[in-house]
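Per reviewer request, we include the raw input and output of the structure prediction for the construct analysed in the revised manuscript.
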Amino acid sequence: RPATECELAKAALHTGQTMDRRTFLGAVGMAAALRWRSGASEEDGAVGDRPNFVVFLCDDLGYGDLACYGHRAIRTPNLDALADEGVRLTDCYAAAPVCSPARAGLMTGRTPNRCGIYNWIPAGSPMHLQASETTVAGLLRDAGYATAVAGKWHLNGLRGPGVPILKDDTHGPKGFGFDVWVSVTNFFERDPLMSR
């Protein structure tokens, strides 16, 4: 029988092969759906059988800007080590050329305009990710994963740039599936505590 996307992803994880975005996202979605449908819990022992993964979203970073992807002058030893030990995605594209819609697309899997995020979100803007959106983090949390985000959130501009996101922020990571976060609305360097 043909291998499922989930089986291909698991094989790639164990052999260090590269995997395209569609296979990766299909495997994550399939794992979450199967876990939800089966009613499995951490007590069932299924948690140890699932891969852990970290997604890095970097503003203004091109494919060739890392040594592990061939840059001859820029040295990125820590990222190179992560790439050597994990799965390297070689055919990923951002949903938009600027930060806020790119984040919305990654979080929801939807075209950012459909989420109401159609541009970079300036301070004081009413534009924000709608609470009704289903996110990858929410699906993973519901499937028993622990979820966290660190860095620039930038999916709302209601409180201004560089403001730490608190637990009661209705437009912050908690409402979109994250258990833990260390995030600001935008620009860590504008907050002396968060920029250290």
